[in-house]
Amino acid sequence: MPHRLPPITALRALEAAARHLNFTKAAEELNVTQSAISHQIRTLEDLWRLKLFERRSRGLTLTRNGEALAPVVREFMSRMNDTLDELRVQAERDPLRVDMLQSFAVKWLVPRLGKFQERFPELDVWISTHDTLVDFEHDDVDLAIRLGNGHYPGLYSRLLIREDVFPVCTPGFLAAEGEPRSPRDLLRYPLLLRLGEPAHPNWEQWFAATGIPDVSISEGPRFPDTNMALQAALDGQGIALARTAHVVDELAEGRLVRLFEIDCPSTVAYYLVCPEGHEQRAKVAAFCKWILEEAAEIHGASRHAPVDS
């Protein structure tokens, strides 16, 4: 049977009295009278039906019960104070909470986030990741970055990144397996597959864009998200189908190479999404301005420049 929780004032009295082994010093620390400390200790003893202190000729001592309970109460008080301090700091800093897909956070945003912190050191960015759409009414989120068609009724949305879809692999893989001369040649290579989801382009769609319809790929490893398929490609396991934002750094650094300059725009794009009017809040506006500038670097070398939705 669970015990009733005591008043916080009684726990404070127990912690201080156990530490000082003196009701008078505990009272001075807590700015109350000695009789108030004695009353709070009696409250605990009556509530728990346990004796906590013994009065001896040389002063106050803890009983075995008190020795067992005092450190538990002390840890509780310490953790509560630390948590309250942290929450107060968080409230004063007023962080910007941004929600997005994990793959986008890992492959694109996080590597660039340091530049935002340099420009706005007073603004903390807290990132959360979900596959489902955020509920702004119930979730503690200021801004979301979503992969979709930009149609979010009742919400502000602005196009962030429109992408191409294309095959990628490592230079080492090409050196070992030979370079394909045509898109159809890829059917002879190990293709890294993503588990089918309507929002994510697949190999069949890419082959159709190259003029090779009715391709059906059933063999090969399958991965639950883009990051895993790309990591397998980076490890030289095969050829992955990538979207621009996920491989822009790897392509620039030469760790991956793009196969074939074939136009295959993704059927979905990344959008900034928030409740109407929230895009004008200072912290949201600052982040949106910065991230749109970062996205423009991708589109500066892309055939598909972003336009306002």
Structural overview:
There is one protein chain. This protein is of the alpha/beta class. The chain folds into two domains: 8-92, Winged helix-like DNA-binding domain superfamily/Winged helix DNA-binding domain (Arc Repressor Mutant, subunit A); 94-309, D-Maltodextrin-Binding Protein, domain 2 (3-Layer(aba) Sandwich), CATH 3.40.190.290. The chain is built from ten helices and eleven strands. The strands form two sheets. Strands 3, 4, 5, 6, 7, 8, 9, 10 and 11 form a nine-stranded mixed sheet that branches. The protein has a two-stranded antiparallel sheet with strand order 1-2. α5 links the parallel β3 (96-100) and β4 (125-129). α1 crosses α2. The longest helix has 30 residues, at 64-93. The protein is elongated and about 95 Å long. Residues 301-309 have low confidence and may be disordered.
Oligomer: single chain
Helical coverage, percent range: 40-55%
CATH top level of the largest domain is Alpha Beta
- N→C terminal distance: 59 Å
Overall domain count: 2
Radius of gyration: 30 Å
Shape: elongated
- CATH-level-2 architecture of the largest domain: 3-Layer(aba) Sandwich
What is the count of β-strands?
11
Determine the structural class based on helices, strands and strand pairing. alpha/beta
What is the number of helices?
10
- The CATH topology label of the largest domain is D-Maltodextrin-Binding Protein, domain 2
Strand portion, in percent?
A: 15-25%
**H and E string:** HHHEEHEHEEEHEHEHEHEEH
